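A note on notation is needed here, since sequence and fold are reported together in a single record. The reader may check this reading against the record printed directly beneath this paragraph.
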Amino acid sequence: MIIKTGRFGQVTIGAEEKVHIPQGILGFPELRDYCLVDPGDETLILWLQSLTDPALAFPVLEPKIFFPPFAVRLSGMELRELKLDNVNQSAVFSILTIPSDVTQMTANLKAPLVVNLREQVAKQVVLQENEYSIRHLMFKELKAHLMTIRANRAAMARNAAAVEASAVRISSIPPSLTVKALQA
C-alpha cells in the first residue's frame, strides 16, 4: 500500500508496518491507524504517521535514549487493552514537541505511547507517577547520545547510498524493556 504523506511524500507500507491505536492519540481519537516512518536521518527520531490524515505525523523517540531511568508501569486493564502477555514484547515512545528553536525540544513523559510489537496495537497511556512531565526538556541529552554514536553512523553513511524515508516494520523494533506491570 502506498500512502501519501505531507512530510515524506509517498511511503510504501505493508501490513507488518501498520500499528492500530484503538483509542487514538490524545486530541485525535478518530485517527486510529498509523505507521512509524524512519526519515533516514541521524536524529533517531521516528514519525508516527497517520494513515488516515496525510498531514498528521507525530515525532516520537524512545525515552530511554534521553532519560535512562524512565519506566512505564501498566495496570492489568492496560495490559489487557494492549493484548500484552509479556511486557518484553513492547516498545515505548514519547511524543515530542519540536519548536523552531530545537534546543527547546520537549518530550511528553507523562503520556507515552506503548506498542505491542507482536500484535501491532498501541495505546497512549497516562502515567500516574508525578515525577514525569508533559514537557521534559531533552535536547541536551539527545545531542549527547547522538554524539556517542556519530562516529559509527558517519562510517556507515560513507558506505551507504542516498537514504529515503521508509516505513518501519513494527516487529523489527527491539523491545523497550521499560514497561513494568503493576503488582497485584
